[in-house]
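Quick one, T. Sequence first:
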Amino acid sequence: MGAVRKIRTACRSCHGGCGVIAHVQDGKVRKVEGDPASPISHGTLCSKGLAATQLAYHPDRILYPLKKGDGGWKRVTWDEALNTVAAKFREVIAAHGAESIVIGQGTGRDYESHLYRFANLLGTPNVLTAGHMCYVSRVGATLITCGNLPVSDWSGDPRCIVMWACNPQWTNPDEHKGVDFWRAYKKGARLVVIDPRKGFLADKADLWLQLRPGTDAALALGFLNVIVAEELYDKEFVENYINGWEAFKERVRQYPLEKVAEITWVEKDLIRKAARMYATTKPASLQWGVPTEQTLNCTDCTRLLTGLMAVTGNLDAPGGNVFFVPPPVRTVSQFARHRDLPAEQRNKQLGGDRYKLASRVALITPKVAWDAILTGKPYPLKAGLLCGTNPVITRANAREAYEALKKLDFLAVIDFFLTPTAELADIFLPAGTWLEQNHVADNWKRHGYILARQKVVEIGECWQDHKIFLELGKRMGQEWWDTVEDALDYLLEPSGLTWEQFKEAGYLKGEQVYHKYREKGFSTPTGKVELYSTILEKWGHDPLPKYTEIPESPVSRPDLAAKYPYILNTGLRIPTFFHSANRMIPWLREIRPEPLVEIHPQTAQKHGIEEGDWVEIASPRGRVKQRAKLNEGIDPRVVVAEHGWWYPELKDAGHGWDRANINLLTDNSHASMDPVMGATNLRVLLCNIARAEE
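Structure tokens:
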């Protein structure tokens, strides 16, 4: 056998960025390990990253383009596959306009710049992403509040950490990874954990606030009530840099601790103690997770948490939540060239007049896409291209998503495997894993870094996503570069580096400056942190953040709670899977072979359920089965279920997409969604449980 080459690259098995050393021998990756030189992960690597070779060389992975005919799938060339997609798209554009094509993505493989460029040059305003309820919704809300996304400054030695609806060591959230948080915590920082479920971090916390799922915005208002009443806020910052302080104080006073305790199930003395700890221990950092975004309180909750950072003087301060300075490279927006989408087309965006914040960040929520396909209103969607996304499993009201995608006249899917969504497609385009791509990685994040993801191997006929968009774009007559690497040179041009030079450097970091607002103000219409939002006011919405009761809860629907008495908290994260990915990976599936639903022992006993029993979970929209795991760390009134489940091994049964898929139970009605972002209510609904037959 030949010599082993060690190649530095960057993982993308989840949200990515962790440094990797790939061991390559005779054209095959033999193993991967964490790179100690990585400024992001410091040599650590999670189970998903370590299993990358099992992903890349899985026997069920599709290694060449496929086209569906009367006899099922058949292998075709890249030319035939791409020419088929281009021809179908041209037909749709000629008959219905480019807006009748939907381009979709999941949480992404760092292809956002190329996907959006393709969509803009195609002329469609309808880009369907996970962003309406994950991260981009947070970006959008902070853009209209303080002009940028505040990110935890773990290297600034925070003395207090509020971990709000996040488990960074399992989920490795956007920007920095769990290891950076853990290093900061181990230096002696005080820890407040806000989570309906008692986990590892709650055990370590100085204070654990076990709130009712979905009531995060109310709890934030309780924190602010204490801070305002006891004048624990930074008076100099408030006086000079807050817009609408007096009106905001009046809104906060409408949420006394007695009221907040009743809403959230958290004792008022505990709320007061946590608020004081955060406000008086300097510096303090607040790390949030996606549960705060996956209800109709999405925008208001983000604005309230940003308000907490601001009024306590922890915004853009060392050890607080800061605006990291990016390296000098072209941004995703610059590369995607949003100006190439004419205003006439932009105005046709589905739901743009209703979900104005989603429109502002250039995406649509799934519900408006499904409506357009199924009803033809306000105009029909006829064709789609989905990249790295599995909406049949990952989007609310999965049955509606399934029926909508099945009804499209034409669908192309870019992925690794024939997922339940890919099985509905007419063309399958095989994507390269992160081991098979060259890219300026993490260039969409806001942690101040870009990373060199080097292609270390080529497998079958798979192409990296970026090349697929580039080559398909050329067939549509679009302006692209000759190669992926030429496009990367363009991205890197402001830095003075070529892709070949950047590969050697490994990463670039922007030069961080704190308290930038002292010279420049904030990038908002008033130049201040807009706790009273002039933009929301202009759009006809309440300019002050508030708490809105979840439409399907024991409080809002006592009639429904009689039949469905438990709050179902979906989306429990586990370290082996990334949303719907990895169920076919042997190492990872061995760790978690079946879906688990966590039930308090008292609740389980009431229904005759024992550890390991199959449990039927029912909501007004459907029923699924998961295995029982008894957990005393949740409230007896709450049931916690895993998401993303399908069974790749059940090839002749639709991969079991409708057996354990919790999104068969979730709601995507417009009444349940955030009114400006269109965030879907994935986290909180009513359910009942029963012991199921094997």
